[in-house]
Design brief:
The structure holds 2 protein chains of 2 kinds. By secondary structure, chain A is of the alpha/beta class. Chain A has helices at about 15-25, 25-30, 30-40, 65-75, 95-100, 135-145; strands at about 1-5, 45, 50-55, 60, 85, 105-110, 120-125, 130. Chain A has one domain. In chain B, helix 7 crosses helix 9 (about 280-290). The chains are: A alpha/beta, B alpha/beta.
């Protein structure tokens, strides 16, 4: 299940893309699920653990992947920290839900990342479990103090 | 600092081309659109110029803050800068601080902030929030061509004829004007843009028009639109002109050659060191232009002059056609 701390309540990794550059492992890049994420979010193809083909930049290394995909990979592979989901654009949202199907995933959030369809997300600040975009947005607004509960 | 500044940032593979028009610009959007690449190229060119292998042309000084360095934080790097466009990379938490906000408002620089989270301390416009898009139609450029696209330029104005309720951000002159012209609707002041969502929630049924100052609504636009989009049982229109004062200036009620020039290109007139947002500038300008007249403008109480029929018509002519008000 995905568990979100919205605007507080937890320590979180301040600069995950920079951390990724120092800790990523070859096996992470060769993982089929990771390859799918890179193909979908970055529109790039993993050639080997050290070479990725980007349609715009040509041959790049994992260090030149987008910040969003780096955070997705860390969420999947490295449980050392709580990561900031606001490093991820809306094109990462479905992958975050897929990772959270594989394991309990606790993240930090500072904006409204757009999730589609049905899901199960716990808003940790309030303990509320939400199942669709409407419940999710309203629960975040309540935490932020922009919407009264009830 | 004032003016509009053009940037062209080029490598052998990509070109970014854009204008920076106000004191605060926000870059966000999907992952992998090129935000980090752009800042990296700007940084490298700043560091070693042509030896970076990149080419940057800009008609202004610029600076790039990527991250804190040992023994040197943002204040050491930025406080000394003047008349500079300052780009700040994501993951710099100081951009959320009051101290940074105070610096931005008074520093006389322009700021381009890469950040998805709303910057609640800063009064930025809905029109200066951009994403990077690839323009595949530029056949004249061999590199991959990227430009900035306003994310909220097409906020959803929907045709709304009934408007049972009109919600305004404040209780001042703009609210008084709308109360005067929207006689068939109930005009409600939210008493601050942070209360708009709760005010909508209290309305059980009926069509709603929300009017707020777009010039300083940047931090709330995303969350507001996300909420509105999910209210399927109410028809809600949101309209975010720069400010009510901007509409009066735009209405041609005041005839002035200088005013026409200003409205054509506000960037050339709004000094960022003095005005934290265009809304503040337009308010002061309107007060200045009317100060020795019988209808001196006040933000707090609207003179009857502005509610005379001919003037009401002029102001209403600045409303979008989708918002129909029976007079």
């Amino acid at each position: 299940m995905l568990k979100i701390w919205y605007y507080g309540g937890t320590e979180y990794m301040g600069d995950a893309p920079a951390y990724f550059d120092n800790v990523y492992e070859d096996e992470w890049i060769e993982d089929e699920f990771v390859k799918e994420m890179i193909a979908d979010v970055d529109q790039s193809t993993v050639v080997s653990a050290h070479v990725i083909e980007s349609p715009i930049l040509g041959a790049i290394t994992p260090k030149e992947l987008s910040g969003g995909v780096k955070v997705l990979i860390l969420m999947l592979k490295d449980d050392s920290f709580v990561y900031n989901m606001s490093n991820c654009g809306n094109n990462c949202a479905k992958w975050i839900l897929k990772i959270a199907e594989k394991k309990d995933l606790t993240v930090y959030l500072q904006h409204i990342l757009r999730f589609e369809g049905e899901f199960e997300i716990e808003i940790m600040n309030s303990g509320k479990i939400v199942h669709n975009p409407k419940e999710y947005v309203e629960a975040l607004l309540v935490v932020e103090g922009l919407l009264d509960e009830g | 600092m004032k003016g509009k500044y053009h940037f062209r940032v080029r490598s052998k593979k990509v070109v970014f081309e854009f204008d920076i028009r106000r004191n605060i610009t926000v870059l966000k959007g999907d992952s992998a659109t090129g935000k980090t690449t752009l800042l990296h190229m700007l940084y490298e060119y700043l560091r070693v110029g042509r030896e970076s292998g990149y080419a940057v042309t800009a008609d202004v000084s610029y600076y790039v803050y990527l991250r804190r360095e040992v023994g040197r934080d943002w204040k050491d790097a930025l406080l000394q800068l003047q008349d500079t466009v300052i780009f700040i990379e994501e993951n710099n938490e100081f951009v959320f601080s009051r101290e940074f906000a105070e610096f931005v408002k008074k520093s006389g620089n322009y700021f381009v902030l890469v950040n998805r989270a709303p910057l609640k301390m800063l009064p930025y416009s809905i029109h200066e929030i951009y994403e990077i898009v690839t323009n595949g139609k530029r056949a004249d450029v061999k590199e991959s061509y990227h430009e900035l696209k306003e994310i909220y330029s097409n906020y959803p104005i929907i045709e709304n004829n009934k408007m049972n309720y009109v919600i305004t951000e404040d209780s001042n002159s703009g609210c008084q004007f709308l109360s005067h012209v929207c006689k068939e609707s109930r005009v409600v002041s939210a008493n601050g843009n942070g209360n708009i969502i709760n005010t909508i929630k209290e309305i059980v049924e009926g069509d709603i028009l929300i009017v707020a100052d777009g010039a300083a609504f940047g931090a709330l636009i995303e969350i507001c639109l996300e909420y509105l989009e999910k209210q399927k049982n109410k028809r809600i229109t949101i309209w975010l002109p720069e400010s009510f004062e901007y509409l009066i200036l735009k209405s041609k009620m005041i005839v002035s050659e200088e005013l026409e020039k200003i409205l054509e290109s506000p960037s050339d007139y709004v000094e960022s060191e003095k005005y934290e947002s265009w809304e503040r500038y337009f308010t002061e300008l309107l007060i200045l232009l009317t100060e020795n007249t019988s209808h001196r403008y006040s933000k707090h109480s609207l003179d009857g002059f502005y509610m005379q029929e001919k003037n009401v018509k002029k102001i209403l002519s600045t409303f979008p056609k989708e918002i129909k008000i029976e007079k």
